Every structure is written in structure tokens, then in C-alpha cells.
């Protein structure tokens, strides 16, 4: 960006007295040397649009340039979603300057059982050594040049979380950080293994100001014990000291940061049944010069989706990913009739979907990207593989209700009520709702659960048979020729 061009376009430029402006600024300087509030607002508004589309309560990490930037992004996202969710901690800045409050926010954010905070913005604290299994969105609003740091950040989202049924995650990249996938480190050998013990080592020490020697109270200290494991972070006490016990023996990484100081990582060798003492000097951060501020810019966001095939590291555009999906579907189901036969057989359907996931094909992701969140998954896959029109779950549910009156009326009043409610469950959540487990949720639970409901159908086997028949009738065979 040329400052003169910005001025000619009507933007206001504020230059601190101590700053010698450059003639031209590129993305790495944005928010470091030159602040562009309009750009940040545009990114936040675009992110908010995506989150409303994908799921506004999906846990999200936003990596920002610095503390000031992280706080601004958190405030803007809070302004976007706070009023509509009723949450005063929807988006929070997890930065070292927030001290104990940041630690509490981080604990809540990392807890899969806690819904808030939903969004955590950070400049450095979430890059490494923090396990956030439920995180579904990794957002880059800062530029990166280090493949190692990129890999560490991506690792925050790559955890599988059974508790929230999270098996994949999104990367939302505003700064081109995903170009570093080209340098992704894929070791030839097996992945690194977590430590196996003995866990008899102790590590203690203190953190101090590198220039004055003064102990630092409230510094955050953690020990990375393996590729995805760590102890801490904890805060240094009133004497600036910390202690970790029950550590594995070997080479560990000590991570330390404090407000106003440059973060530091140290390699530490621990010994069995011994206490290792470490002194950790932290250098104060250099006082940064003021930033140029440019306001009144017109900013647009260019959309582009890239899909990563985990097994090969291949990156595909949306068009290429659709073609990749089509090939894999037709390898198993060469005709629409074959796909329908797989789909109405629950064990075969689950095996088929699991095979697609192993190939990095996630129908729910495609539905989001194609703006087809209401589409039946069968119809989405059939459309990609065979070009048939996409039908929504609501359309199929309504068609079933109109077409299958004879089937519905063959049951007693209570059983008919169950069938119609099952149809609504399908309309809302898809075909996997039509499984025996559904009778443990409302309203079936209030109706007596599977035990009582099975009696309305004449027994457990009749109930199971009805569930299977409904699945077959939702996808009538005549449409799959």
C-alpha cells in the first residue's frame, strides 16, 4: 500500500512525530508498523459472516499481530455476537497482559464442556503448548514466515474431540499463511510418541528480569513434555519461583512469558529421581515506535477455498475437491442405484462415510462451502457424483409424509405420533437420527423411551424394522435408476 495512494483515495493518515514513514507498506508491516482499522473491521465482518454460516458457537482461535490487535479483534467480535448470544464473554483476548484473567479464560476455552468463551484472540499465548480439542476454526489475521510456527498453530486445531464430535477443522486465512503448507514437514518415520516415563523428575527455578535481576511475579511457565502434552501453564509465586513434579526423564521444553517481556523457550534435561534447578532470565520487550494510522480505506475480502488432503498433503481448489470427491464416490458406488443401496443400509452407509472421511472427504464441509446446509447428505453426494438435483431434508420429509400415508396409517395413534416425530428429527438432523439411540432424547424420553415406544409398535424388532423401512422410504428406489 502506498501512503500517497491512500491519501488520494480520501483516507486520513496519522503519522507519529518519531516515525519516518516508508513509501510503500506490505502485509507483514500491517498492524506492526501501520495500523489499518478498516482492514481489521473488514476481516472481522467477513469472519462473522462465515461463523454465522458455519456455526456461531464453534470454538475459534484468531491469531493476531500483537496485543493491541488481539484486543481490537476480540472487541469487534464481541460487538458482533455479544448482543445476539447474550454472552458478555463471547470473544476474549488471551494475551499475557491480561494476567490472571487470561489464565481463567484460557482454562474455560480449553474445556470442551464449557461453551464460553467461544472466540479467543491472541498474539502468542495459543501458538504452542496449549491443547484446545474442541477448536473448529483456526483464523490467521497475522502473517507468518516460519513453517515451524505455522505447524504449531495448526496443531491447535488438529485435535480430535469425541466430546463435541469434532473430527475436522477449518482454516480461515486472511494473510496467506497457508502458503506454508508447501513446506509442511512430513517426517519419513513414525510420528513422535508421548513420553513413557519414568515420571520421577522434578523441575524448579525462578524467572527474573535479565537486566536488573529482579524476580518476576506472575510469569506464565509451562513444560512441554511431548508432541501434544504439557504441564502448566502456572504462574510464578511471590518469589518468582515455579515447580513442576512427576515429569518424564529426558529433554523437555520450558516455555515462559510475562507481560512486557519477550517470551522464551529453553531446552531442559531432567533426571530420574532428581530435582533440576533452572534460572530463566527474560529480556524486556523493546519499546516500539508509534504506528502510522490510516483510516477511511475501502477494503474488500477475496474468497478462496483450499482443501488439504491429509494423507498426501495435496491442496485442492473447490472445483478440484469436488472432482476428487466424485472419483472416490464412484469408485465405491458406480451408479446412483448402488449409492442408494448403500445409503439405506445403516452399516454400509456408516462404513462408506468413514471411508470418505479417511480420504479427507467431509460431506458437512462441502455442504457449508456450497451453501447447502439444509441438503440431505445423500443428495449432496449424488449431486457431486452423478449430477442429480440437490434435495433438502425438508423436501424429502414432506414428500415422505405425502407419499406414505398408507404406511403411516397402518399404525396405531401413538406409533403414528412417533413416526411423525422421527420424520421431524430427520428433517432437522439427517438420516442418522433414525437410530434406536434417538429414543433417549426428548420428546421420546418423556413418552417412556424405547421400552414404552417399542410396545406401541408391537415389540423391539417391529420398532427396529420400522426405523429401517422409514430410511428406505425416505429414499424411494424409483429415483435411483
TrEMBL record:
<dbReference type="GO" id="GO:0005829">
    <property type="term" value="C:cytosol"/>
</dbReference>
<dbReference type="GO" id="GO:0003677">
    <property type="term" value="F:DNA binding"/>
</dbReference>
<dbReference type="GO" id="GO:0030246">
    <property type="term" value="F:carbohydrate binding"/>
</dbReference>
<dbReference type="InterPro" id="IPR013670">
    <property type="entry name" value="EcoEI_R_C_dom"/>
</dbReference>
<protein>
    <submittedName>
        <fullName>Type I restriction enzyme EcoKI subunit R</fullName>
    </submittedName>
</protein>
<feature type="domain" description="EcoEI R protein C-terminal">
    <location>
        <begin position="320"/>
        <end position="475"/>
    </location>
</feature>
<dbReference type="Pfam" id="PF13620">
    <property type="entry name" value="CarboxypepD_reg"/>
</dbReference>
<feature type="domain" description="Helicase C-terminal">
    <location>
        <begin position="46"/>
        <end position="160"/>
    </location>
</feature>
<dbReference type="GO" id="GO:0003824">
    <property type="term" value="F:catalytic activity"/>
</dbReference>
<dbReference type="InterPro" id="IPR050742">
    <property type="entry name" value="Helicase_Restrict-Modif_Enz"/>
</dbReference>
<dbReference type="GO" id="GO:0006304">
    <property type="term" value="P:DNA modification"/>
</dbReference>
<dbReference type="InterPro" id="IPR027417">
    <property type="entry name" value="P-loop_NTPase"/>
</dbReference>
<dbReference type="InterPro" id="IPR001650">
    <property type="entry name" value="Helicase_C-like"/>
</dbReference>
<dbReference type="Pfam" id="PF00271">
    <property type="entry name" value="Helicase_C"/>
</dbReference>
<dbReference type="Pfam" id="PF08463">
    <property type="entry name" value="EcoEI_R_C"/>
</dbReference>
<dbReference type="InterPro" id="IPR013784">
    <property type="entry name" value="Carb-bd-like_fold"/>
</dbReference>
Amino acid at each position: 500500500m502506498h501512503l500517497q495512494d491512500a491519501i488520494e483515495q480520501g483516507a486520513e493518515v496519522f503519522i507519529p512525530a518519531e516515525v519516518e514513514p516508508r513509501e510503500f507498506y506490505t502485509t507483514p508491516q500491517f498492524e506492526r508498523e501501520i495500523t489499518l482499522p478498516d482492514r481489521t473491521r473488514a476481516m472481522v465482518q467477513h469472519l462473522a459472516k462465515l461463523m454465522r454460516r458455519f456455526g456461531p458457537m464453534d470454538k475459534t482461535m484468531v491469531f493476531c499481530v500483537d496485543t493491541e490487535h488481539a484486543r481490537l479483534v476480540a472487541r469487534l467480535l464481541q460487538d458482533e455476537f455479544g448482543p445476539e448470544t447474550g454472552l458478555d464473554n463471547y470473544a476474549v483476548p488471551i494475551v499475557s497482559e491480561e494476567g490472571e484473567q487470561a489464565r481463567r479464560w484460557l482454562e474455560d476455552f480449553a474445556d470442551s464442556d464449557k461453551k464460553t468463551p467461544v472466540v479467543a484472540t491472541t498474539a502468542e499465548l495459543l501458538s504452542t503448548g496449549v491443547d484446545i480439542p474442541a477448536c473448529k476454526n483456526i483464523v490467521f489475521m497475522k502473517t507468518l514466515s516460519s513453517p515451524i510456527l505455522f505447524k504449531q498453530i495448526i496443531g491447535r486445531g488438529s485435535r480430535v474431540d469425541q466430546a463435541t464430535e469434532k473430527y475436522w477443522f477449518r482454516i480461515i486465512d486472511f494473510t496467506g499463511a497457508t502458503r506454508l503448507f508447501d513446506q509442511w514437514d512430513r517426517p519419513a518415520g513414525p510420528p513422535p510418541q508421548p513420553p513413557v516415563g519414568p515420571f520421577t523428575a522434578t523441575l524448579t527455578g525462578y524467572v527474573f528480569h535479565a537486566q536488573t535481576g529482579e524476580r518476576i511475579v506472575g510469569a506464565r511457565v509451562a513444560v512441554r513434555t511431548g508432541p501434544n502434552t504439557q504441564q502448566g501453564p502456572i504462574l510464578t509465586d511471590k518469589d518468582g519461583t515455579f515447580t513442576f513434579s512427576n515429569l518424564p526423564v529426558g529433554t523437555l521444553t520450558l516455555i515462559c512469558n510475562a507481560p512486557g517481556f519477550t517470551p522464551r523457550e529453553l531446552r531442559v534435561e531432567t533426571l530420574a529421581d532428581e530435582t533440576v534447578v533452572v534460572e530463566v532470565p527474560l529480556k524486556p520487550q523493546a519499546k516500539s515506535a508509534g504506528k502510522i494510522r490510516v483510516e477511511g480505506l475501502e477494503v474488500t475480502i477475496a474468497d478462496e477455498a483450499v482443501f488439504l488432503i491429509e494423507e498426501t498433503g495435496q491442496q485442492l481448489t473447490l472445483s478440484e475437491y469436488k472432482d476428487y470427491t466424485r472419483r472416490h464416490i464412484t469408485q465405491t458406488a458406480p451408479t446412483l442405484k448402488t449409492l442408494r443401496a448403500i445409503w439405506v443400509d445403516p452399516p454400509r452407509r456408516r462404513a462408506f462415510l468413514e471411508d470418505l472421511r479417511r480420504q479427507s472427504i467431509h460431506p458437512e464441509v462441502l455442504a457449508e462451502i456450497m451453501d447447502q446446509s439444509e441438503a440431505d447428505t445423500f443428495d449432496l453426494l449424488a449431486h457431486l457424483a452423478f449430477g442429480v438435483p440437490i434435495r433438502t431434508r425438508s423436501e424429502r420429509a414432506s414428500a415422505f409424509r405425502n407419499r406414505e400415508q398408507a404406511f403411516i396409517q397402518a399404525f396405531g395413534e401413538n406409533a403414528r405420533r412417533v413416526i411423525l416425530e422421527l420424520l421431524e428429527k430427520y428433517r432437522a438432523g439427517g438420516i442418522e437420527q433414525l437410530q434406536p439411540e434417538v429414543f433417549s432424547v426428548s420428546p421420546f424420553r418423556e413418552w417412556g423411551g424405547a421400552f414404552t415406544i417399542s410396545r406401541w409398535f408391537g415389540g423391539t424388532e417391529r420398532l427396529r424394522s420400522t426405523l429401517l423401512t422409514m430410511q428406505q422410504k425416505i429414499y424411494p428406489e424409483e429415483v435411483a435408476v
